[in-house]
Specification:
The structure holds 3 protein chains of 3 kinds. Chain A has helices at 2-34, 38-41, 55-62, 66-97, 101-112, 116-128, 135-159, 164-171, 176-187, 189-205, 208-213, 221-231, 236-256, 258-271. Helix content of chain A is 79%, strand content 0%. Chain A has one domain (57-271): MetI-like (MetI-like fold, Orthogonal Bundle). Chain B has 2 domains: 27-133 and 291-354, D-Maltodextrin-Binding Protein, domain 2, CATH 3.40.190; 134-288 and 362-412, D-Maltodextrin-Binding Protein, domain 2, CATH 3.40.190. Chain B contains 17 helices and 9 strands. Chain B has helices at residues 2-24, 36-52, 63-75, 88-97, 114-120, 142-148, 156-166, 180-193, 209-225, 235-243, 257-260, 304-314, 317-325, 339-342, 347-359, 371-387, 395-412, and strands spanning 27-33, 55-61, 83-86, 129-141, 199-200, 203-204, 249-253, 273-277, 289-297. In chain B, strands 1, 2, 3, 4, 7, 8 and 9 form a 7-stranded mixed beta sheet that branches. Chain B has a two-stranded antiparallel ribbon with strand order 5-6. In chain B, strand 5 and strand 6 form a beta hairpin. In chain B, helix 8 crosses helix 9 and helix 8 packs across helix 16. The termini of chain B are far apart. Classes of the chains: A mainly alpha, B alpha+beta, C mainly alpha. Chain C: It holds the Pfam family BPD_transp_1. Chain C: It is a multi-pass membrane protein.
């Protein structure tokens, strides 16, 4: 019995390690390739041992101006998330406290609908208004990614805060908006962190909107990485270094806010 | 009080003066491609600004984005572009038909190959100045040829025999673009050499017997002796293979020579790479020689005089010589005879260019407005042919169907039957 | 008691108003605009003015075999990917649903694919799949198996793309189901054990039925996203070879931003829109009936 148990336990860990390896392997391969020369990458059989080089990173940040794209991605993501909080928090509060189901569904529509069905009209309007390749167009489009996440997560979060808190404040003569501002929001830190982290990551990773609406000036990182492939011949080392550079911030954010991210990703489903 | 008023008037008028002076600063907006020649211009623009006193606001874009941006700006009539780099074969037909190019009546075009100018000029006056030309060549590995005792092929029969002989488990006999739409340009010379055409007098004709035969031949070559997965390869996938020594021959545009021999990328010594003319087909030996990039003045430009000044500078002989020294195959014929330039240019490149300038076909794709869609259609034929090693029983019927579709596209834009 | 101010009286409208207007302006208006364009001949490349042509675009697109293929492909890709992810994801969640050393590290690892930039993921897998230098073929040949062409062949491109999707999104199902399992009450399990049920029986008759609603919700979320998959396909194959991996989303993109056929592109976009709408509604029905 005991022996059987130990065997089962060992088997369990083998399975866990196997799953982890499958998940991790592409990242490891990306990381190791980013330190290889082109010659080492296209060597057959694939080289596991090689002398690492930093030239790919030097190229990515030196020749390719990745820093600019990095800043663009940060600015676009930051503004989109910030503005989404400004208009999303009150909406989430209203949905939670006044059970505005239809509004919730309406905002959720933005999460469900394929981005490309609004992208073409945006593109036409943006070129007419001379908004192509501006932060305005990009931030607005990225807000459509961030806003539903903010509303979705925050309305669930507000649901978990007892109504009595505001009611007692209102009995004491505070206005509802004051109660929201001074009582509810200060208690919502964890929810807001979840919403901000998730919506920032999704904006950071977005490819389609920026591919159409941005050009040289406001190009974001995913486009830069994609262009890196089609720019010259496939320079795998450089591409892998670029991939590391783009994934690192999202992964670091995830590590710091692991609990929040898991919560944000799973909460909608578990709560139903 | 009067004093104050007077001084205010003086102040106001001086402000106005300076405002008009500001409005008079000469400025133009230029769109460049991030092609090596665009980069070269970018670096030289400060010189131009200094000598002309014109301020140049330039943007540098990827080729696809450049076309998209120009098309939407012109089509929605919101453009402030004065000068732009342009790909005549990709967008020239459409831009010209829509009247987006300013005719160039005062420029001298005698320094450019005649076949190239036949495309750059539709009707009366040319609408762009060619900057960069490219033509199809055969790159090959001298060492592998020697080891296998193979001569440089002069005809398609010899090419196939050489590919067969050089093909092994580790080295593909021959490579060329197989990725559908991207392959259409490289296929074109094969079609011409078999005696076919993509479009003749505004009608799609690539279902003709010679054209279909060419597509079969192309598919047989690549399907039997090409690298694995060739149907998803464009030049950017083939070049690393060639540099890694995994391909013995490669037919593609002449522009890649400089990159192929780049010592930082290649595992094969530069001396082992050779360049030759594309072998002759049963009917002709007419590789494409096309203007891959030109430069033009926008019709709606409000600063045409300044725009022309920029155009003349950007297409000058001096900059062309500079381009040659940076491994760019420039359009001007004179720089190909300049001894100083020739010192640093591969003789194989010079010889193949001389041949193509005489015998080349100035088109490498269906010349029409909806060229992207037409390329997708022809690309399907290429893939079908490669997948069946040229044996497909459907190919002729498919070609007929695709010709019908391309003709529909021509009819849609009113180009059907127009020379 | 103070007198309610204007804001307070209308707070139900004022609070959600900016968000409502934003969505209406950026989403509903464009959709209506797209609908209107779908009845016109507008084509940027022709330079001709916009003309009302009724249902002609619809006729042309519906008769286009490429469009029908794209629909079938979109559905195949989505259904295969989501079914594999649901089964695999649930299985992994059930395995991991116990205390063990390194559990929080394992959960962190599971998060990584979810937050990775899809374009970069696609590029990494392209290097894997490269027929000549890729690791995938090296692994196959080391095992003595024939090498494949992966995304380079029309026959294998869709399965190869599904593998990427499964790698990236199975962890999401796992995490959701894990959270669902953590929220279950102990009682039914104890009751089953008292009745002498085997581990398998507990799993089959207690655990899975109890987390089913959570699984279905996870599937809805995945399904909607899978139907809209764009980044990975665009970055890895651009819809090729030929049209072999062209889904509705990619086709719509090409018609709009490569061919500039705005009228016909609108028809494709509307079709995609309704496909997503229908699928979400269908599954929501399924879910509510499973709950009752």
């Amino acid at each position: 019995m005991n022996k059987n148990n130990r065997l089962q336990n060992a088997l369990f860990y083998v399975v866990v390690v196997f799953i982890s390896l499958v998940v991790l392997f592409p990242f490891l391969w990306m990381l190791s390739s980013s330190f290889k020369t082109q010659t080492d990458i296209i060597a057959w059989p694939p080289k596991l041992i090689f002398s690492p080089t930093l030239q790919n990173y030097a190229k990515v940040f030196g020749e390719q101006d990745f820093l600019k794209y990095f800043i663009n991605s940060t600015v676009v993501g930051g503004l989109a998330v910030g503005l989404s909080l400004v208009i999303g928090l009150p909406a989430a509060y209203a949905i939670s406290r006044f059970t505005q189901r239809r509004l919730a569904l309406f905002i959720l529509l933005a999460r469900l609908m394929p981005g490309i069905s609004f992208l073409m009209p945006w593109y036409i309007i943006a070129s007419r208004l001379d908004l192509m390749d501006t932060y305005v167009a990009l931030v607005l489009s990225h807000m459509l990614i961030a806003l539903p996440i903010v509303v979705w997560i925050m309305s669930a979060y507000f649901n978990s805060i007892p109504v009595e808190l505001e009611e007692s404040a209102m009995v004491d003569g505070a206005t509802r908006q004051y109660a929201f501002w001074a009582i509810i929001l200060p208690m919502s830190g964890p929810g807001i962190i979840t919403a901000v982290t998730l919506s920032f990551i999704f904006s950071w990773n977005n490819f389609m909107f920026s591919q159409v609406l941005s050009m040289e000036k406001t190009k974001t990182l995913p486009i830069a990485v994609y262009n890196f492939v089609s720019y010259a011949e496939v320079d795998w080392g450089g591409v892998m270094a670029a991939a590391v550079a783009i994934m690192a911030p999202a992964i670091i954010l995830t590590m710091i806010f692991q609990k929040f991210v898991v919560k944000g990703l799973t909460m909608g489903a578990v709560k139903g | 009080m009067k004093k104050i008023l007077a001084s205010t008037v003086v102040l106001m008028s001086s402000l106005c003066l300076s405002a008009t002076a500001f409005a008079q600063t000469k400025e133009i907006r230029v769109l460049l491609a991030n092609h090596p020649y665009g980069e070269l211009l970018k670096a030289a623009i400060p010189d131009f600004e200094k000598q002309s006193g014109i301020k140049v606001n330039f943007e540098s874009l990827q080729e696809g984005q450049l076309t998209t941006k120009l098309t939407t700006e012109f089509a929605t009539k919101s453009s402030s572009v004065d000068v732009f780099m342009t790909r005549p074969l990709q967008e020239g037909k459409m831009f010209n038909r829509n009247g987006w190019y300013e005719p160039l009546t005062t420029q001298d075009f005698s320094d450019y190959p005649k076949n190239v100018m036949s495309v750059a000029a539709a009707g009366s006056a040319p609408f762009l100045v060619p900057l960069v030309t490219e033509w199809q060549v055969l790159y090959y590995r001298k060492d592998l040829f020697q080891a296998a005792g193979v001569e440089v092929p002069k005809t398609f029969t010899e090419l196939e025999a050489a590919a067969k002989k050089l093909n092994s488990d580790t080295v593909a006999g021959i490579a060329s673009r197989g990725k559908g739409a991207a392959a259409v340009t490289q296929l074109s010379s094969y079609v011409y050499n078999f005696g076919g055409q993509y479009i003749d007098k505004g009608v799609a004709v690539f279902d003709s017997a010679p054209a279909v035969e060419a597509i079969r031949y192309y598919g047989k070559l690549l399907g039997s002796y090409g690298p694995k997965g060739v149907t998803s390869m464009s030049w950017e996938n083939i070049m690393p293979l060639f540099q890694a020594g995994k391909v013995a021959m490669w037919t593609d545009a002449s522009v890649f020579y400089g990159q192929i021999v780049d010592p930082a990328k290649t595992q094969v010594p530069a001396a082992n790479f050779g360049i030759a003319n594309l072998p002759a087909g049963p009917k002709a030996s007419s590789p494409f020689l096309v203007t891959s990039w030109g430069i033009a003045v926008a019709k709606q430009s409000k600063n045409k005089e300044l725009a022309f000044k920029f155009l003349d500078w950007a297409t000058s002989k001096e900059l062309a010589a500079k381009g040659m020294l940076s491994n760019i195959t420039m359009a001007r014929s004179s720089v190909w005879k300049d001894p100083k330039v020739l010192e640093s240019v591969n003789p194989g490149l010079v010889a193949t260019r001389a041949y193509a300038a005489e015998n080349g076909n100035p088109l490498d794709r269906p010349y029409m407005s909806a060229v992207g869609e037409a390329r997708d259609q022809i690309g399907e034929l290429v893939i079908e042919s490669i997948n069946t090693k040229g044996e497909s029983a459907n190919l002729a019927a498919m070609a007929k169907d695709k010709v019908g579709r391309v003709n529909d596209l021509l009819k849609d834009s009113g180009e059907y039957g127009q020379p | 008691m103070h007198k309610p101010s204007f804001i307070e009286k209308n707070i139900r409208i004022l609070f959600p108003l900016p968000a409502f207007l934003f969505i209406a302006l950026l989403m509903i208006f464009p959709i209506v605009y797209t609908l209107a364009l779908s009845f016109t001949s507008w084509n940027l490349t022709s330079g001709a003015p916009m003309r009302f042509i009724g249902l002609r675009n619809y006729g042309q697109i519906l008769l286009e075999p490429r469009f029908v293929d794209a629909i079938v492909r979109t559905l195949t890709f989505t259904i295969c990917a989501v079914v594999i992810e649901a089964v695999l994801g649930t299985a992994i969640a059930i395995i991991l649903n116990r205390a063990f050393i390194g559990k929080s590290l394992a959960k962190l690892l599971l998060l990584l694919p979810l937050v990775s930039t899809p374009v970069a993921v696609g590029i990494i897998f392209n290097l894997f799949y490269d027929p000549t230098i890729g690791l995938a073929n090296f692994a196959l040949s080391s095992l003595g198996l024939p090498q494949g062409l992966w995304v380079s062949s029309a026959a294998t491109v869709i399965p190869s793309l599904i593998i990427v999707d499964v790698w990236q999104w199975t962890p999401m199902i796992t995490l959701i189901v894990l959270a669902g399992l953590a929220g279950l009450s102990e009682e039914p399990f104890e009751a089953a054990r008292v009745d002498g049920a085997t581990q398998w029986q507990v799993l089959r008759y207690v655990t899975i039925p109890m987390v089913m609603p959570v699984i279905l919700t996870a599937v809805i979320l995945r399904l909607i996203d899978a139907l809209k998959t764009f980044d990975i396909i665009f970055a890895m194959t651009g819809g090729g070879p030929g049209y072999a991996s062209e889904t509705l989303n990619i086709m719509g993109f090409k018609y709009s931003f490569e061919y500039f056929r705005m009228g016909q592109a609108s028809v494709i976009l509307i079709a995609l829109f309704f496909l997503v709408l229908l699928c979400s509604m269908g599954i929501m029905k399924l879910r509510s009936s499973s709950e009752n």
